[in-house]
Amino acid sequence: MRNQTVAQQMVDVLRQAGVERIYGVVGDSLNSVVDAVRRTDGIEWVHVRNEEAAAFAAAAEAQLTGRLAVCAGSCGPGNTHLIQGLYDAHRSGAPVLAIASHIPSHQIGTGFFQETHPERLFTDCSDYCEMISTPGQMPRILRIAMQRALGNSGVSVLVMPGDVAHDKAVHPTGAGRLVTERGRVVAPASQVRELADKINTARKVMLFCGAGVRDAHAEVMALAESAAAPVGHSLRGKEWIQFDNPYDIGMSGLLGYGACFDAMHEADLVVLLGTDFPYNDFLPQARSVQVDHDAGRLGRRTVLELGVHGDVRETLRAVLPLVEAKKDRAFLYRMLRKHTRSLEAVVSPYTHDVERHTPIHPEYAASVLGELAADDAVFTVDTSMSNVWAARYLTPNGRRRVIGSFVHGTMANALPHAIGAQFANPGRQVISMSGDGGLGMLVTPPPRERGGFSLCRVGVATDQPGP
Questions:
Q1: 189-201 and 312-319 helices, crossing angle to 10°
Q2: Which of 225, 231, 232, 427 could form a disulfide with 247 if both were Cys (CB 3.0 to 4.6 A apart)?
Q3: What integer pLDDT is reported at residue 179 of this predicted model?
Q4: Are residues 131 and 198 located together in one domain of the fold?
Q5: For position 448, what pLDDT does the model report?
Q6: Residue 202 maps to which CATH number?
Q7: Which helix (H) or strand (E) holds 130?
Q8: Same domain, 68 and 142
Q9: Rounded Cα–Cα distance for residues 265 and 300 (Å)
Q10: Residues 326 and 375 in one domain
Q11: Strands (E), 162-298
């Protein structure tokens, strides 16, 4: 530890935790951290053009790998640039650590050049935000921040004045082991029994799935079969449940299609599985039960007859032996037929008889992109019409991933998300579906350290007449 700085100790701990890169923009108050990265094997500095892009890139890496990803911003404006991407990361449940450097500690509170109050700025877009005001807090506070990000699937922020980063470390780095695998919440037996009773009693059951069904595909299919239940999904649930699903009836919400909305409102019982679907106007305000590992989400969007606090997969495994197979499958078959008609009327027209449309429709471009992309491709999607086309024309298969700002809803996310996705998976095909507005707001060239990026602009026509 002799002559080790706080910044070097921070980088050593990050490397010890498996962090391979830090996304950021170099700035005076970050110089000690950047120099420590330069001196340390196995970790690199990925230079972007805007700290917002650094946070987006880290968010995509974290979502794809499930591991901690790190970004950094210099004091003042560098911190405020981070905020947009950190909101997206936090609301997407991405374990991200942000290093927010600060003005010299003896100048805090004096209205100094570039002074902000980062501990206040980041409060709403993080689960943990603290300042390193003395070398004695390290490395303990860093390990706390990393564990909070991983344990709560959210953002941790460490604020560090530039002079503190340059100070000598006072405690040995030591060795620490992070808990990276989260435990599963097992629902109480009484709630499982009541859920089974409600499914058995209802004549028409419908399942509505969110991202919380990520590892419960087999269990959802088994429940749909036993309960003769059509299966709808939210935008975030699509990639986890639509594939290999003979009960699929599409998506609800502003980007929705198919028979999902109708089934939801005709059902005697709607079972909400791992979803915090925000558009309560699309949800029935009765006849609903909800299963979620976060008890704070239960009943947040609609009135519930029953809330079940438990992991979706574990809850369904417990409830399946108690569910009686339904003989009446008329509701399921009717919704499946309705879904097929809806697809033919709303989704398919833009991809058939394409030779009659000059120029082509953007929907057709999206469908061709879905056909030609690699089986394990990663798509990153801007918050724009690109999002609509991705939702309706990209077909999940259980191996592909779709990353977007689906909760925060910011623009200019797709390209920096793609950069983070590519760094996390160097040999994997990554496709950024960037909208013209998002790309215009943040045109971030690929990092010079990596090849394999290609930028393709596809011009598409709308139904609006020209001048």
A1: 70
A2: 231
A3: 83
A4: no
A5: 53
A6: 3.40.50.1220
A7: strand 128-131
A8: yes
A9: 18
A10: no
A11: 205-209, 231-233, 248-251, 257-258, 269-273, 288-292
Tell me which residue of 266, 283, 248 sits closest to 204, measured CA to CA.
266
**Pair of tokens at residue 466:** 């020209």
Q: Kindly report whether the peptide bond that precedes residue 467 is cis, defined as omega within 30 degrees of 0.
A: no
Instruction: Give CA 26 to chain center in angstroms.
Output: 27
- Identify the CA nearest to 406 among candidates 247, 240, 292, 289: 240
CA distance 399 to 295: 30
pLDDT reported for residue 462: 41
Whether 175 is covered by a domain: the verdict is: no
Q: How high is the pLDDT of residue 467? A: 35
Rounded Cα–Cα distance for residues 361 and 288 (Å)? 39
* Distance spanning both ends of the chain, measured CA to CA: 70
* Stretch (H or E) spanning 118: helix 118-121
| pLDDT score recorded for residue 372 | 95
Residue 397 CA to residue 375 CA, distance in Å, equals: 8
Judge whether 178 lies within some domain: no
User: Cα 431–437–438 angle (5° rounding)?
Assistant: 45
How many domains are there within the chain? 3
- H or E segment and range at residue 306: strand 306-309
CB 400 within 8 A of CB 377: yes
Do 152 and 144 form a contact (C-beta atoms < 8 A)?
no
Give the CATH number for residue 100.
3.40.50.970
Query: 248: which strand partners?
Result: 231
- The domain in which residue 435 lies consists of 353-441
* pLDDT for position 439: 84
Question: In terms of domains, do 340 and 376 share one?
Answer: no
Residues forming a β-bridge with 401: 378
Q: Which residues pair with 150 in a beta bridge?
A: none
116 domain residue, yes or no:
yes
Kindly state whether residues 364 and 331 are assigned to the same domain.
no
Spatial distance between the Cα atoms of 79 and 215, rounded to a whole number of angstroms:
36
d(CA 210, CA 238): 7
Residues 198 and 339 in one domain: yes
**Spans in the chain with pLDDT lower than 50:** 444, 459-467
User: Are 203 and 295 in a shared domain?
Assistant: yes
pTM: 0.91
